[in-house]
Predict the 3D structure of the following.
Amino acid sequence: MKPKISSSRKITVAYLCAILWSFCFPAWSQEPARTVFQGVRVFDGSTGTLSPAQNVLIENNTILQVSREWTQEMKTAPTKIDGKGKTLIPGLIDVHLHLVFGSLSMVEMLSPGLNQEGIMNKAGKGAEEMLMRGFTSVRDVGGPIFPLKNAIDQGKILGPRVWPSGAIISQTAGHGDFRTPDERSRKFFGTPSRAELFGATFIADGKPEVLTAVRENLRFGASQIKLMAGGGTSSAYDPIDVTQYTLEEMQAAVEAAEDWGTYVTVHAYTDRAVQKAIQAGVRCVEHGQMVSEETLQLMAEKGIWLSLQNLMEDSPNMDPARREKRKPVLEGQKKVWAKAKELGVKLAWGTDFLFEPELNREQNAYILKLQEWFSPAEILKMITHDNAQLLALSGNRSPYRGELGVVKTGALADLILVDGNPLEDLSLLAQPEEKFLVIMKDGKVVKNRLK
């Protein structure tokens, strides 16, 4: 009579067999996923010209070959996309946006019925639409982003790669103090504000609280830290000219971020706010439209990034008080782009749409506003290669491994096939639905109009 084998022992035997099989027949025996773009002109991200017709082979999520030759590996690739002389460019990058705040109106943000499910539905739809506009990577510089980012990375939602900052860190009465008039200070009355409970902001005063806020964001996976260093236009309590956080508080944030191998970026418009932030050791400034030539020169000398926007002049849905606060910012932005370029400041571009979801459809059109100061080649390089360089500042805290913003061997395969030459006609970038024939993110085709 044969002895009976218990079910638990059967499972153990099966598990051991699986391990033995993996040693005998390793994963490399499986055919890698390969796609080739045939006969495309390449904007590689680092030069201002298009190549002659080339072939670009992708293996899994990486560019394996860029060659004028039709190699054996290309011949055997199961997926071939005939580019017919059209233009292959890196995926677009927006380094200053808020996927959640940009998907909700202020009325929705303040609604008593707002919940996590509602946030995910709105922001998830916005993330998918953004990817379909060709934005394959974004830097989210403040807000309750982690659930959405995780859903994108797990393939549950279509969307761009996300470099998250997590909750905005603000002093009391700072630009990230989103409390309504009836909400009292957590420190004195013991109740966190609604915005804090949703993960939108940390109101942190003094070195210990700033350190805790920074470390809490890093714990959840922040790739960089966003600190409010000056007044803003979309908040109720702080005039545009005020400077926020003491030098000691900002230095504490910088030290905590650097201990994790990453950096602090600050919201700041004025000379005083920006210069104090630089003294504290920050490596990037968001906005800066009101700074002087002296401050821009300091940024150029120290290699500080200026993450700049070209804000809209007006909006019918904008609160009158916010419209009034924005006037000096709009006046300054007419000068700062040209002067920063002249002085050699490291420039990056983003949109910074807030609480007006309908504006997101204009994301690509805002690229064209840069033509006042830059050539099409300079603009295309900024929104691909240069923006990717800023993303890389996160170092080991970057959530994705590999080089972006370029089309070259070894880079990640985030690519767009454009119907036409954007170096001759930049307006093609503002027509993603018609002119972006193929969009690829992480080696996977998410849109293909050539089928």
